[in-house]
Amino acid sequence: MFLTSEEERILAGEEGETRRKMMEILVALGKVFGAERMIPVRSVQVSGASYKTIGEYGLSWLRSLDASVAAPTTLNPVGMDRTRWKEMGIDPAFAAKQVEVIEAYQRLGVRLECTCTPYYLHLIRYGDHLAWSESSAVAYANSVVGARTNREGGPSALAAAIVGKTPEYGLHLVAARAPQLVIQVNPGEHEMETAHYGALGYRVGAIAGNRIPIFSGIRPNRDQLKALGAAMAASGAVALFHVEGITPEARIFTYDTRGLESFPVEWNDILDVFKDAPVDAVALGCPHCSEQELARIAALLEGKTVRIPLYVFAAHGVIEKQKPLVEAIEKSGARVFADTCMVVSPAMERFGTIMVNSGKAFSYVPNMCGAAVRLGTTGECIQVATGAPGKEKGLG
Ligand code: F3S
Predict the structure, then answer these.
(1) Shortest-distance Cα residue to atom 6 of ligand 1
(2) Whole-angstrom Cα distance, residue 181 to residue 164?
(3) How far apart are CA 28 and CA 306, in angstroms?
(4) Domain 5-174 belongs to what architecture?
(5) What pTM, to 2 d.p., does this model score?
(6) Which atom of ligand 1 sits closest to the CA of residue 343?
(7) pLDDT averaged over 10-residue windows placed end to end, the chain, 396 residues
(8) Among 133, 197, 343, 357, residue to substitute to test ligand 1 (most atoms within 8 Å of Cβ)
(9) CATH 3.30.499.10 holds for 281-386
(10) Cα dist. 310→65, 105, 353, 384 in Å?
(11) Would you say the CB of residue 344 lies under 6 angstroms from ligand 1?
Protein backbone atom coordinates (compact mmCIF):
# COMPACT_ATOMS: atom_id res chain seq x y z
CA MET A 1 0.00 0.00 0.00
CA PHE A 2 1.41 3.38 -1.01
CA LEU A 3 1.81 5.91 1.80
CA THR A 4 2.78 9.54 1.31
CA SER A 5 5.75 10.89 3.26
CA GLU A 6 3.34 12.62 5.65
CA GLU A 7 1.47 9.34 6.23
CA GLU A 8 4.80 7.57 6.81
CA ARG A 9 5.72 10.22 9.40
CA ILE A 10 2.45 9.66 11.26
CA LEU A 11 3.04 5.89 11.17
CA ALA A 12 6.54 6.39 12.57
CA GLY A 13 5.05 8.19 15.57
CA GLU A 14 6.48 11.59 14.69
CA GLU A 15 3.08 13.22 15.31
CA GLY A 16 2.36 11.52 18.61
CA GLU A 17 1.39 8.12 19.89
CA THR A 18 -2.36 8.43 19.29
CA ARG A 19 -1.98 9.46 15.66
CA ARG A 20 0.51 6.59 15.19
CA LYS A 21 -1.95 4.06 16.63
CA MET A 22 -4.78 5.44 14.50
CA MET A 23 -2.68 5.27 11.36
CA GLU A 24 -1.76 1.70 12.25
CA ILE A 25 -5.47 0.77 12.35
CA LEU A 26 -6.05 2.36 8.93
CA VAL A 27 -2.98 0.75 7.34
CA ALA A 28 -3.92 -2.66 8.75
CA LEU A 29 -7.44 -2.32 7.32
CA GLY A 30 -6.06 -1.11 4.00
CA LYS A 31 -3.75 -4.11 3.75
CA VAL A 32 -6.48 -6.62 4.64
CA PHE A 33 -8.84 -5.18 2.02
CA GLY A 34 -6.24 -4.51 -0.68
CA ALA A 35 -6.34 -0.69 -0.65
CA GLU A 36 -3.68 0.95 -2.79
CA ARG A 37 -3.66 4.29 -0.96
CA MET A 38 -5.31 6.55 1.60
CA ILE A 39 -7.90 9.13 0.56
CA PRO A 40 -9.08 12.23 2.47
CA VAL A 41 -12.58 12.08 3.95
CA ARG A 42 -15.05 14.95 3.87
CA SER A 43 -16.67 13.93 7.15
CA VAL A 44 -16.67 11.24 9.81
CA GLN A 45 -19.51 9.89 11.91
CA VAL A 46 -18.52 7.86 14.96
CA SER A 47 -20.68 5.20 16.61
CA GLY A 48 -19.98 3.77 20.06
CA ALA A 49 -21.21 6.84 21.88
CA SER A 50 -23.70 5.44 24.40
CA TYR A 51 -22.24 4.29 27.70
CA LYS A 52 -24.82 1.50 27.46
CA THR A 53 -23.03 0.05 24.41
CA ILE A 54 -19.35 0.88 25.06
CA GLY A 55 -19.22 0.50 28.86
CA GLU A 56 -16.14 1.07 31.00
CA TYR A 57 -13.76 -0.56 28.51
CA GLY A 58 -14.76 1.82 25.71
CA LEU A 59 -14.63 4.82 28.00
CA SER A 60 -11.09 4.04 29.19
CA TRP A 61 -9.96 3.53 25.55
CA LEU A 62 -11.40 6.95 24.64
CA ARG A 63 -9.71 8.54 27.66
CA SER A 64 -6.35 7.12 26.53
CA LEU A 65 -6.46 9.02 23.22
CA ASP A 66 -4.54 12.26 22.93
CA ALA A 67 -5.11 13.96 19.58
CA SER A 68 -7.57 16.13 17.67
CA VAL A 69 -9.77 15.15 14.79
CA ALA A 70 -8.54 16.23 11.37
CA ALA A 71 -11.93 16.03 9.61
CA PRO A 72 -15.42 17.28 10.64
CA THR A 73 -16.67 14.54 12.94
CA THR A 74 -20.07 13.96 14.54
CA LEU A 75 -21.26 11.43 17.08
CA ASN A 76 -23.95 8.77 17.06
CA PRO A 77 -26.80 8.99 19.61
CA VAL A 78 -25.74 8.65 23.24
CA GLY A 79 -27.68 7.00 26.07
CA MET A 80 -29.78 10.03 27.05
CA ASP A 81 -31.04 13.45 26.08
CA ARG A 82 -28.15 15.61 27.25
CA THR A 83 -30.40 18.18 28.92
CA ARG A 84 -33.65 16.28 29.62
CA TRP A 85 -32.19 13.00 30.91
CA LYS A 86 -34.01 13.22 34.26
CA GLU A 87 -37.35 13.35 32.42
CA MET A 88 -36.32 10.13 30.67
CA GLY A 89 -35.90 8.42 34.05
CA ILE A 90 -32.15 7.92 33.55
CA ASP A 91 -30.19 6.75 36.59
CA PRO A 92 -27.84 9.57 37.75
CA ALA A 93 -24.92 7.07 37.92
CA PHE A 94 -25.45 6.22 34.24
CA ALA A 95 -25.78 9.91 33.39
CA ALA A 96 -22.44 10.67 35.07
CA LYS A 97 -20.70 7.96 33.04
CA GLN A 98 -22.41 9.13 29.84
CA VAL A 99 -21.16 12.65 30.47
CA GLU A 100 -17.61 11.27 30.80
CA VAL A 101 -17.94 9.56 27.40
CA ILE A 102 -19.24 12.77 25.83
CA GLU A 103 -16.42 14.81 27.36
CA ALA A 104 -13.84 12.29 26.09
CA TYR A 105 -15.15 12.78 22.54
CA GLN A 106 -15.30 16.54 23.04
CA ARG A 107 -11.60 16.58 24.02
CA LEU A 108 -10.84 14.97 20.64
CA GLY A 109 -12.70 17.77 18.86
CA VAL A 110 -15.76 15.68 17.93
CA ARG A 111 -18.92 17.79 17.44
CA LEU A 112 -21.51 16.87 20.02
CA GLU A 113 -24.30 16.41 17.50
CA CYS A 114 -25.41 13.06 18.75
CA THR A 115 -27.49 11.74 15.88
CA CYS A 116 -27.77 8.92 13.38
CA THR A 117 -28.99 11.44 10.79
CA PRO A 118 -26.02 13.82 10.38
CA TYR A 119 -27.14 14.31 6.76
CA TYR A 120 -30.00 16.53 8.05
CA LEU A 121 -27.45 18.88 9.64
CA HIS A 122 -24.56 18.92 7.16
CA LEU A 123 -24.66 18.74 3.40
CA ILE A 124 -23.08 15.66 1.86
CA ARG A 125 -22.87 15.32 -1.89
CA TYR A 126 -22.74 12.70 -4.57
CA GLY A 127 -19.22 11.23 -4.79
CA ASP A 128 -18.03 12.55 -1.40
CA HIS A 129 -15.74 10.16 0.46
CA LEU A 130 -16.84 9.69 4.08
CA ALA A 131 -15.96 7.43 7.00
CA TRP A 132 -19.25 6.84 8.76
CA SER A 133 -20.04 4.07 11.18
CA GLU A 134 -23.74 4.25 12.03
CA SER A 135 -25.13 1.57 9.74
CA SER A 136 -28.36 3.38 8.83
CA ALA A 137 -26.45 6.58 8.04
CA VAL A 138 -24.00 4.57 5.91
CA ALA A 139 -26.90 3.07 3.94
CA TYR A 140 -28.45 6.54 3.47
CA ALA A 141 -25.21 8.27 2.46
CA ASN A 142 -24.27 5.59 -0.06
CA SER A 143 -27.69 4.85 -1.49
CA VAL A 144 -29.80 8.01 -1.25
CA VAL A 145 -27.05 10.60 -1.73
CA GLY A 146 -24.48 8.61 -3.72
CA ALA A 147 -21.67 9.50 -1.33
CA ARG A 148 -19.10 6.79 -0.63
CA THR A 149 -18.39 5.17 2.69
CA ASN A 150 -17.66 1.72 4.00
CA ARG A 151 -19.50 0.58 7.08
CA GLU A 152 -16.86 1.60 9.59
CA GLY A 153 -16.54 0.27 13.12
CA GLY A 154 -16.34 2.83 15.93
CA PRO A 155 -12.52 2.59 16.24
CA SER A 156 -11.84 2.71 12.47
CA ALA A 157 -14.13 5.74 12.11
CA LEU A 158 -12.33 7.50 14.95
CA ALA A 159 -9.00 6.58 13.34
CA ALA A 160 -10.20 8.16 10.08
CA ALA A 161 -11.32 11.24 12.04
CA ILE A 162 -7.95 11.70 13.71
CA VAL A 163 -5.92 11.06 10.56
CA GLY A 164 -8.44 12.72 8.21
CA LYS A 165 -8.16 9.84 5.77
CA THR A 166 -9.40 6.34 5.11
CA PRO A 167 -7.98 3.47 3.03
CA GLU A 168 -9.48 3.41 -0.45
CA TYR A 169 -11.26 0.07 -0.76
CA GLY A 170 -14.76 -1.39 -0.89
CA LEU A 171 -17.55 1.12 -1.45
CA HIS A 172 -15.09 3.95 -2.11
CA LEU A 173 -14.51 2.28 -5.50
CA VAL A 174 -17.18 2.69 -8.18
CA ALA A 175 -16.54 -0.86 -9.45
CA ALA A 176 -17.59 -2.29 -6.06
CA ARG A 177 -20.95 -0.48 -6.04
CA ALA A 178 -22.88 -2.46 -8.67
CA PRO A 179 -25.93 -4.48 -7.58
CA GLN A 180 -25.44 -8.10 -6.57
CA LEU A 181 -29.03 -9.30 -6.23
CA VAL A 182 -32.44 -8.23 -7.50
CA ILE A 183 -35.50 -7.67 -5.29
CA GLN A 184 -38.77 -7.52 -7.20
CA VAL A 185 -41.42 -6.00 -4.98
CA ASN A 186 -45.06 -6.46 -5.81
CA PRO A 187 -47.20 -4.42 -3.41
CA GLY A 188 -50.19 -4.74 -5.77
CA GLU A 189 -52.68 -1.94 -5.28
CA HIS A 190 -51.49 -1.20 -1.75
CA GLU A 191 -49.94 2.12 -0.89
CA MET A 192 -46.65 1.58 0.92
CA GLU A 193 -45.93 3.92 3.78
CA THR A 194 -42.72 4.32 5.75
CA ALA A 195 -43.27 1.40 8.16
CA HIS A 196 -43.96 -0.90 5.18
CA TYR A 197 -40.53 0.04 3.82
CA GLY A 198 -39.11 -0.81 7.24
CA ALA A 199 -40.80 -4.22 7.09
CA LEU A 200 -39.56 -4.73 3.52
CA GLY A 201 -36.02 -3.87 4.62
CA TYR A 202 -36.34 -6.21 7.61
CA ARG A 203 -37.22 -9.06 5.23
CA VAL A 204 -34.65 -8.23 2.56
CA GLY A 205 -31.74 -7.62 4.97
CA ALA A 206 -32.03 -11.24 6.11
CA ILE A 207 -31.75 -12.41 2.49
CA ALA A 208 -29.10 -9.94 1.31
CA GLY A 209 -26.56 -10.18 4.15
CA ASN A 210 -23.83 -7.75 3.08
CA ARG A 211 -24.69 -7.83 -0.63
CA ILE A 212 -25.94 -4.85 -2.66
CA PRO A 213 -29.61 -5.23 -3.65
CA ILE A 214 -31.38 -3.42 -6.47
CA PHE A 215 -35.14 -2.99 -6.06
CA SER A 216 -37.84 -2.77 -8.68
CA GLY A 217 -41.58 -2.17 -8.26
CA ILE A 218 -41.37 0.56 -5.60
CA ARG A 219 -41.20 4.37 -5.60
CA PRO A 220 -40.07 5.38 -2.10
CA ASN A 221 -39.60 8.98 -1.00
CA ARG A 222 -36.51 10.03 1.02
CA ASP A 223 -37.94 9.12 4.44
CA GLN A 224 -39.00 5.76 3.08
CA LEU A 225 -35.55 5.15 1.57
CA LYS A 226 -34.12 5.98 4.99
CA ALA A 227 -36.41 3.40 6.63
CA LEU A 228 -35.65 0.75 4.01
CA GLY A 229 -31.88 1.14 4.29
CA ALA A 230 -31.86 1.28 8.10
CA ALA A 231 -33.84 -1.97 8.35
CA MET A 232 -31.61 -3.80 5.85
CA ALA A 233 -28.54 -2.59 7.70
CA ALA A 234 -29.98 -4.04 10.92
CA SER A 235 -31.44 -7.41 9.89
CA GLY A 236 -28.54 -7.82 7.44
CA ALA A 237 -25.38 -5.80 6.83
CA VAL A 238 -26.46 -3.89 3.74
CA ALA A 239 -24.38 -0.73 3.28
CA LEU A 240 -25.61 0.25 -0.19
CA PHE A 241 -28.78 -0.45 -2.16
CA HIS A 242 -30.26 0.80 -5.39
CA VAL A 243 -33.86 1.44 -6.41
CA GLU A 244 -34.58 1.46 -10.14
CA GLY A 245 -35.34 4.97 -11.37
CA ILE A 246 -35.01 6.49 -7.87
CA THR A 247 -31.56 6.32 -6.28
CA PRO A 248 -28.79 8.35 -7.94
CA GLU A 249 -26.52 5.58 -9.18
CA ALA A 250 -29.46 3.55 -10.52
CA ARG A 251 -30.38 6.64 -12.58
CA ILE A 252 -26.83 7.35 -13.78
CA PHE A 253 -25.60 3.83 -14.54
CA THR A 254 -27.22 1.09 -16.58
CA TYR A 255 -26.76 -2.07 -14.57
CA ASP A 256 -26.91 -5.44 -16.29
CA THR A 257 -28.82 -7.51 -13.73
CA ARG A 258 -29.18 -10.60 -15.91
CA GLY A 259 -27.68 -13.58 -14.12
CA LEU A 260 -28.10 -12.05 -10.64
CA GLU A 261 -30.06 -13.95 -8.02
CA SER A 262 -33.59 -12.57 -7.88
CA PHE A 263 -36.15 -12.59 -5.05
CA PRO A 264 -39.84 -11.64 -5.30
CA VAL A 265 -41.46 -9.90 -2.31
CA GLU A 266 -45.26 -9.83 -2.18
CA TRP A 267 -47.49 -7.52 -0.14
CA ASN A 268 -48.27 -10.36 2.32
CA ASP A 269 -44.54 -10.88 2.99
CA ILE A 270 -44.42 -7.25 4.11
CA LEU A 271 -47.68 -7.35 6.07
CA ASP A 272 -46.61 -10.52 7.92
CA VAL A 273 -44.06 -8.50 9.92
CA PHE A 274 -46.92 -6.53 11.54
CA LYS A 275 -48.18 -8.55 14.52
CA ASP A 276 -50.72 -7.51 17.12
CA ALA A 277 -49.67 -7.31 20.80
CA PRO A 278 -50.52 -5.22 23.86
CA VAL A 279 -48.09 -2.31 24.14
CA ASP A 280 -46.52 -0.49 27.13
CA ALA A 281 -44.80 2.36 25.26
CA VAL A 282 -44.41 3.70 21.73
CA ALA A 283 -41.14 4.97 20.26
CA LEU A 284 -40.80 6.81 16.96
CA GLY A 285 -37.70 8.21 15.26
CA CYS A 286 -35.45 5.34 14.26
CA PRO A 287 -33.49 6.65 12.41
CA HIS A 288 -33.99 10.10 13.94
CA CYS A 289 -37.03 11.94 12.55
CA SER A 290 -36.84 14.28 9.60
CA GLU A 291 -38.76 17.57 9.72
CA GLN A 292 -41.44 15.96 7.55
CA GLU A 293 -41.79 13.05 9.95
CA LEU A 294 -42.13 15.43 12.93
CA ALA A 295 -44.83 17.30 11.00
CA ARG A 296 -46.76 14.08 10.34
CA ILE A 297 -46.56 13.00 13.99
CA ALA A 298 -47.73 16.46 15.11
CA ALA A 299 -50.67 16.29 12.70
CA LEU A 300 -51.66 12.80 13.82
CA LEU A 301 -51.52 13.87 17.50
CA GLU A 302 -53.56 17.03 17.07
CA GLY A 303 -56.30 17.22 19.72
CA LYS A 304 -55.26 13.90 21.28
CA THR A 305 -53.71 12.91 24.60
CA VAL A 306 -51.35 9.99 25.05
CA ARG A 307 -52.37 7.26 27.52
CA ILE A 308 -49.05 5.39 27.49
CA PRO A 309 -45.53 6.86 27.06
CA LEU A 310 -44.85 8.05 23.52
CA TYR A 311 -41.26 9.03 22.81
CA VAL A 312 -40.10 10.68 19.62
CA PHE A 313 -36.39 10.95 18.79
CA ALA A 314 -34.67 13.46 16.52
CA ALA A 315 -31.38 15.32 16.13
CA HIS A 316 -31.01 18.35 18.40
CA GLY A 317 -30.47 20.58 15.34
CA VAL A 318 -33.75 19.40 13.77
CA ILE A 319 -35.66 19.89 17.05
CA GLU A 320 -34.27 23.43 17.38
CA LYS A 321 -35.42 24.28 13.85
CA GLN A 322 -38.90 22.87 14.38
CA LYS A 323 -39.83 24.09 17.85
CA PRO A 324 -43.54 24.72 17.03
CA LEU A 325 -43.88 21.12 15.80
CA VAL A 326 -42.14 19.82 18.90
CA GLU A 327 -44.46 21.90 21.10
CA ALA A 328 -47.48 20.57 19.20
CA ILE A 329 -46.30 16.97 19.74
CA GLU A 330 -45.54 17.52 23.42
CA LYS A 331 -48.97 19.12 23.99
CA SER A 332 -50.36 15.58 23.72
CA GLY A 333 -48.12 14.39 26.57
CA ALA A 334 -45.63 12.77 24.17
CA ARG A 335 -41.97 13.67 24.60
CA VAL A 336 -39.49 14.63 21.89
CA PHE A 337 -35.94 13.80 22.94
CA ALA A 338 -32.64 14.73 21.29
CA ASP A 339 -29.21 13.06 21.32
CA THR A 340 -30.50 9.53 22.00
CA CYS A 341 -32.90 6.82 20.85
CA MET A 342 -35.08 3.90 21.93
CA VAL A 343 -32.27 1.41 21.29
CA VAL A 344 -29.14 2.99 22.79
CA SER A 345 -30.83 4.51 25.85
CA PRO A 346 -31.44 2.41 28.97
CA ALA A 347 -34.68 4.40 29.43
CA MET A 348 -36.67 1.93 27.33
CA GLU A 349 -35.58 -1.15 29.29
CA ARG A 350 -38.38 -0.70 31.85
CA PHE A 351 -41.08 -1.50 29.29
CA GLY A 352 -42.34 -5.01 28.49
CA THR A 353 -43.47 -4.36 24.90
CA ILE A 354 -42.49 -1.37 22.78
CA MET A 355 -44.28 -0.41 19.59
CA VAL A 356 -42.21 1.12 16.80
CA ASN A 357 -42.71 2.20 13.19
CA SER A 358 -39.17 1.23 12.18
CA GLY A 359 -37.78 -2.00 10.76
CA LYS A 360 -34.42 -1.25 12.34
CA ALA A 361 -35.86 -0.71 15.82
CA PHE A 362 -37.98 -3.82 15.26
CA SER A 363 -34.72 -5.76 14.75
CA TYR A 364 -32.80 -4.28 17.67
CA VAL A 365 -35.26 -3.62 20.51
CA PRO A 366 -35.56 -7.26 21.71
CA ASN A 367 -31.80 -7.71 22.22
CA MET A 368 -30.83 -4.17 23.13
CA CYS A 369 -33.76 -3.35 25.45
CA GLY A 370 -34.83 -6.83 26.59
CA ALA A 371 -38.37 -5.91 25.51
CA ALA A 372 -40.86 -7.45 23.12
CA VAL A 373 -41.49 -5.34 20.03
CA ARG A 374 -44.43 -4.63 17.77
CA LEU A 375 -44.25 -2.95 14.38
CA GLY A 376 -46.96 -0.57 13.24
CA THR A 377 -47.43 2.25 10.79
CA THR A 378 -46.97 5.74 12.21
CA GLY A 379 -50.77 6.12 12.26
CA GLU A 380 -51.21 2.86 14.17
CA CYS A 381 -48.50 3.85 16.66
CA ILE A 382 -50.32 7.11 17.40
CA GLN A 383 -53.66 5.28 17.67
CA VAL A 384 -52.18 2.83 20.18
CA ALA A 385 -50.43 5.57 22.17
CA THR A 386 -53.58 7.69 22.38
CA GLY A 387 -56.06 4.86 22.75
CA ALA A 388 -57.92 6.01 19.66
CA PRO A 389 -59.81 3.29 17.73
CA GLY A 390 -57.57 1.75 15.06
CA LYS A 391 -57.82 0.02 11.72
CA GLU A 392 -56.61 -3.46 10.82
CA LYS A 393 -52.90 -4.12 11.57
CA GLY A 394 -50.44 -2.74 9.05
CA LEU A 395 -53.11 -0.64 7.37
CA GLY A 396 -53.45 2.32 9.74
FE1 F3S B 1 -30.61 5.81 15.05
FE2 F3S B 1 -30.94 4.53 17.30
FE3 F3S B 1 -32.25 3.75 15.18
S4 F3S B 1 -29.03 5.22 16.48
S5 F3S B 1 -30.92 4.27 13.49
S6 F3S B 1 -32.46 5.72 16.20
S7 F3S B 1 -31.26 2.43 16.65
Answers:
(1) 286
(2) 33
(3) 52
(4) 2-Layer Sandwich (3.30)
(5) 0.96
(6) 7
(7) 98 98 98 98 97 96 97 98 97 98 98 97 97 98 98 96 98 98 97 97 98 98 98 98 98 96 98 94 98 98 98 98 98 98 95 97 96 97 85 50
(8) 343
(9) yes
(10) 38, 30, 13, 10
(11) yes
